[in-house]
Each structure stands twice: as C-alpha cells, then as structure tokens.
Design goal:
With 511 residues, the protein is of the alpha/beta class. It contains 22 helices and 13 strands. The strands form 5 sheets. The chain has a 5-stranded parallel sheet with strand order 6-7-10-5-11. It has a two-stranded parallel ribbon with strand order 1-2. α4 links the parallel β3 and β4. The longest helix has 20 residues. The chain starts with a helix and ends with a helix.
C-alpha cells in the first residue's frame, strides 16, 4: 500500500536529512508507527515528531493559526539548509494552509508533492467526501491576523514611533510592500539627517526577520571614498595590488553577500566605481583591484542620496545606465520641517531612547514641552539638520536636566542655542559655490575663506572635475596668461594654487 510520508524516503536519488513530522493529538500512535517505518528504510533521516493542536482539521481558521504559529516559532536557517514542504497528506484545508504559508515565505521553502503509482490501471476508492468553504473574507480573525502582522512591520520600519504625517505613513506602507516583494535596488532620497541610513537598516532587519536575506547589512558613506581607496573598499584588492596593499582585502560587496549593501551618498562615487557597481548589480560579478579573476556576490543594493541624480546625469557626473538601474524603486524622505506633525512623537521617542541608553529616566514637564513644541513648529524654525538636530537637542536637554526632569530654563537655553546654530544659514543662504566647497573642505574651513576666493576656488574645482589630468586643467584655467610665458608650467601653477587650500588633484578627481 502506498504511504505518502514514508515514500519520501524511498527515492534513491533523494536523501532527507531531517523530517519534521506534524500530527494531531489523536494521531500519536500513527505518528510513532510512521516514524519507526521511516527510520527503518532511511536510517540517515532524523525524524522529529511535532504535535500540533488542532481540534478540527477542516477548520480553515484554526488550522492556519496553528501552522502559522509553528512557522513563527521555528528556527529556520535557509543559508545552511534547504527546506521542502510536503502538502500531499492531511486534509485539503491543511494542504492549502501549508501552501499559503510557503507562498508568503513564512516557510522559506519549496513545495514537494507525492502521488501513488497506478497498478493495472486500477484506482483505489476515493473514500469520504466533504465540501469546504474557502471564502477567506468570512474569517475575520484570519484577516485581522494579517493586518496585525502588517501593522507590526510598519511600526518596526518607523522604529515604533507613532508618526502622524499621512504622506510619510503612506510612503512607509509602500516601502513595506516593496521590501518584502523584491530584491531589486531601492533608492532613498532626501536631505541630510532625514533618516535614510536608519530606514535602510530597518528594511534589512525586516527582510532578515522574514528569512529573505541571510547575510549582513553593510553600510558606507560614498563621500568618504577617494581614488584607489574607493575601488579597494568596495570591490576589494589582492595582495600587492598597489603600494601598501600588504594583505588581500575582500571589500564591502563581498561582505554583503546574501545580505544588503547600503551606499549612502551614492552620487559621490566616481565614474569608474559606478561602472563596476553596475556590473556587480546586473551580473553579480566584479573584479577586485589587481585581480584578473572575477568575484561573485549576491547582494541587494540600497542607496541613499541628498543630491539630484537626474541633474548629475545631465552634467555627466553620474552614469545614466546606473541611475536607470537603481531608480526602479525610489522613495523621497521628507525633512523634519515637512513633517511637523511628527515632531512631538519623535520628541517622546528620543527621550525614551536617551533614558534606555543611559539607564536613567528623563522626562520633560508640561510647560517646558509646550515651549519647545511652539518653537519647533514655528515656520522660521528651519531644522536644517532635520532629525539629527532634534536628536542632538534632546540629548543636550536630557543631559543637563536637574533631577532627570527637563524644565523651562533648559528648554529656553536649547532654543537659544538652536537659533544661534541656524542663524548663519538664515542670514546668508548657501549658494551652489558654498555647497560645493563645503562638501570638499567642510563648513568650518569654508567660513574662513573670503567670498571672492570662494567663487574662484569653486570654478577651479569644476574645471578640474571636467578635465582628465592636472596639465589639461591647468591649460584650461591659465589659457590667457600662459600665452605670455616662454615655458608655461600650468600643472605646477595649479598644484600650488590648490595647496593654498590644502587640496591635491586626487582630492578633486578621485584618482
């Protein structure tokens, strides 16, 4: 007689290492017999009995709840093991529930189904028949369970903050939907301090919780990568690939294998790195520096930027094909000034986080809270640093709070400090030249340069970025004055000019 469960272990070319046998309370004796039979024909198979409490195996809601709980509690390790779900045995309802949970990736597995062989064209009697109503809309608690699970995911992506901005909440709902449905690149745009890195990390952790990734979350700010360092950091290098390469280095793409690679400020990558990255995204292959053999890494790319990448493409600073590849799913994170409804819940969140990290409770009295919120919601309050400014403000107030309670005096002092911090920005808004120089030299260094020198230096930097080498940039910049020199040394003149600002050609060209 054909026995579907036992038959799984009777195929010579299919070895089962471990079999999780699910059975009901009234099937204990049958489970013992099946386990013994499986061990006798396949000694290498470890059979693990699992009693699942289901009163009515035809009750869709009850069966689904029991199997769903089993999936949640089970310690799946998809990076090390391959899972199959056998849906041949049990009631049709049980089979459907197993199918749905596998389809939703609660079981990170593939389906396997067995069937009996025909014997002289005879088919055994079908036995009893029962019609099951599978109209899922009638099962309120089942629908509620899915809704609760989604709300849990959304709350997780928002760090548990009860955000009130309708626009932001809709965006998070879409991110949750996309994150669990695809491994395609995701691009997060928005101003500095809007929370791009934190959100990318939470997307990764949500996918990890659902067993969709098994690798690590690897993050790097591309603005910190220059020249050979960029190539080596991202793609790794072989021993002796360049001066100082005393040991081989795997690189961040390899570290993110089977996980998520987050490239913040991706618009700062050089064109060569962009080309290598595009190949790695599309083919999962890349060449480490100094190697003639490709390396392989299967990672999901997430990227962040506060730049307009379309403009960068138009200016030739960002590859159009790479932008097209990473622009499939793009989400623009708003700044704090665009989410004033969320200032109060974020204030509460930051206070709770400070209390947890420092191990002491810190609160804010009602008068002080109202004073801070009035200031925070004023149109003139720019929040130029966005959530970083808010987080830093809470840390300062909580640290100085007498007796662990922030009072009006502490709030007034912090408001004055924030107003002073933002005053230069409101009095003299940054132009494009200042923004360009700040990215390279830092804001403090730019503030020490005279206005007319800023204009000149900014134009020099733009010219250098358009030219292939130092000599070409020098010829372009000194095109008029070099005509009066018998032996013009344009490269040396440009090198000395840049040295006045502690800059070198590699700082501007990425070489």
């Amino acid at each position: 007689m054909w026995r579907p469960t036992v038959s799984l272990c009777q195929h010579e070319d299919f070895v089962v290492d471990r079999f999780e046998l699910l059975f009901g309370a009234n099937e204990q004796q049958l489970a013992k017999q099946v386990s013994a039979d499986m061990r006798s024909i396949s000694p290498e198979t470890q059979v693990i009995p699992n009693q699942v409490s289901v009163k009515d195996p035809w009750d869709f809601e009850e069966v689904f709840a029991a199997f769903h709980q089993f999936a949640v509690d089970y310690d799946f390790q998809p990076d090390e093991e391959q899972y199959l779900v056998h849906i041949t045995t049990g009631t049709h309802v049980q089979q459907i529930c197993l199918f749905l949970l596998t389809e939703s990736r609660h079981f990170p597995a593939q389906l396997v189904q067995t069937s009996p062989a025909r014997f002289k064209n005879k088919i055994l009697p079908t036995g009893k028949m029962r019609i099951i109503d599978l109209d899922l809309s009638k099962y309120d608690s089942l629908a509620t369970r899915f809704a609760q699970e989604q709300q849990t995911d959304l709350s997780f992506l928002k760090a548990g903050i009860e955000t009130r901005s309708p626009t932001f909440n809709r965006m998070i709902e879409r991110i949750e939907q996309v994150a669990l449905a695809t491994s395609a690149p995701i691009l997060l745009t928005g101003p500095t301090g809007a929370g791009k890195t934190q959100l990318a990390n939470r997307i990764f952790r949500l996918k990890k919780k659902r067993s969709q990734v098994v690798g690590e979350f690897v993050s790097v700010n591309c603005a910190t990568l220059r020249g050979d360092q960029a190539m080596s950091t991202l793609f790794g290098h072989t021993k002796g690939a360049f001066t100082g390469a005393q040991q081989a280095r795997p690189g961040l793409l390899m570290a993110a294998d089977k996980g998520v690679l987050f490239l913040d400020e991706i618009g700062e990558l050089g064109l060569d790195e962009q080309a290598m990255l595009l190949r790695a995204i599309e083919e999962k292959e890349f060449l480490p520096v100094g190697s003639d053999q490709t390396a392989t890494s299967h990672f999901q790319l997430m990227a962040g930027t506060n730049r307009d990448l379309r403009q960068a493409v138009a200016e030739g600073r960002f590859r159009e094909d790479l932008f097209a590849r990473i622009n499939l799913w793009t989400f623009a994170l708003p700044g704090l000034a665009e989410r004033t409804e969320d200032i109060e819940p974020n204030l509460t969140y930051e206070l709770e986080r400070f209390s947890n990290e420092q191990g002491r409770k810190v609160t804010i009295n009602a008068e002080a809270k109202q004073a801070f919120l009035r200031f925070a919601l004023e149109p003139s309050t720019t929040w130029s640093g966005n959530f970083r400014d808010l987080g830093a403000a809470v840390v300062r107030m909580a640290t100085l709070a007498p007796g662990g309670r922030i009072n009006l005096e502490i709030v007034s002092e912090e408001i004055h400090r924030l107003q002073s911090l933002w005053q230069p920005a409101s009095a003299a808004p940054k132009n494009d030249d200042t923004t360009l120089l700040s990215d390279i030299l830092g804001e403090d260094a730019v503030d020490r340069i005279d206005v007319f020198d800023r204009v000149q230096l900014a134009e020099v930097i733009r010219t250098c970025r358009r030219c292939k080498n130092l000599s070409s940039a020098g010829r372009t910049l000194f095109q008029a004055s070099r005509q009066s020199k018998a032996k013009p040394n344009d490269a040396d003149r440009l090198r000395k000019y840049l040295a006045k600002f502690n800059l070198t050609w590699s700082d501007l060209s990425g070489e």
